[in-house]
Amino acid sequence: MSQLSNILNHDEEPGSEELLRYLQGKATDEERFAIEKQMVDSSFVNEAMEGLQHFRDPEEVKNYVAQLNRQLQKHTDKKVTRRNKRKLKEQNWLTIAILAILLLCVTGYLLIHFLRVKH
Amino acid sequence: MSNNRYEHISDQELLQKFYSDRDNQWLGIALQRYTLLLLGVCMKYLKNEEEAKDAVQQIFLKAITELGKYKVDYLKSWLYTVARNHCLMKLRDKNIFIPVEDDTPLASPETDRSELANKEITLTLLETSLEELNPEQKTCVTLFYLQKKSYQEIVNHTGYSLLQVKSHIQNGKRNLKILLEKKMNTNG
User: Fold this and answer.
1) What pTM did the predictor assign?
2) How far apart are the first and last CA of chain B?
3) Of B43, B75, B84, B127, which has the fewest CB atoms closer than 10 Å, so is most exposed?
4) What distance separates the 2 farthest-apart alpha carbons in chain B?
5) Residues in chain A closer than 8 A to B64 (CB atoms)
6) Are residues B8 and B78 in the same domain?
7) Model confidence over B79-105: pLDDT tens digits?
8) ipTM topping 0.95
């Protein structure tokens, strides 16, 4: 009867490595069961596995994933750098503005001081 | 950035981090978890390796833009919807129309993770509910969940097609849960 709990229990989601092994027919019985259970519960996993079976070479899928992840990382890193640069520019302007105000104050004070001394 | 370091962080937590500091790297880590699944879904619809790869790239870009605009709670299901819509649009551009399948999830994971799962009484009720399923569903559910047979083994054993086997297991599970809930309510 304990096997009945398999119907209600939720295992941890299989990772990419397990999914790739399943595609290549190299998954262990336990991995295979966990993946097929996921396919019952999740349309996302089910459709993905159907699609992945259409690739000519499952080994090539690994390369595609690595390539896509590299491109994604480049993109997310770039955005951050760009944003950081923008932040730096904004900070530079703020410093210049503060310095300009301070300079004006000092010049104003000196001007008033010298005028008073003259008089 | 090695993503193994972030394995223990859930999607929701990664999204929270992104929403608090707007650092796209958090999105990168979360999205990479679904690259393989997205590639599979795109391949299922587009049936072309290069087009599927391009589609995943476009989906990533779209995700980065959209996630910056509004809050998403469940990244996985949101990404799946984005991917499907993207592929269906691509196909529509080519004048290919695919009937949308009923993809209503069997149940939310939260419901499935119900604490009831291991209680003796639930399992007893489940056992009686199993007897009430139609013969096809009962056979497939028993072979799959109780005897842990693979889809292919069930196909060989029953003579049903793969699609039929999947459908009997899905519908069988859905019906079992309905029967179980009814029994639980009756038992109070």
Assistant:
1) 0.77
2) 52
3) B127
4) 56
5) 75-76, 79
6) yes
7) 999 999 999 999 998 877 776 655 444
8) no
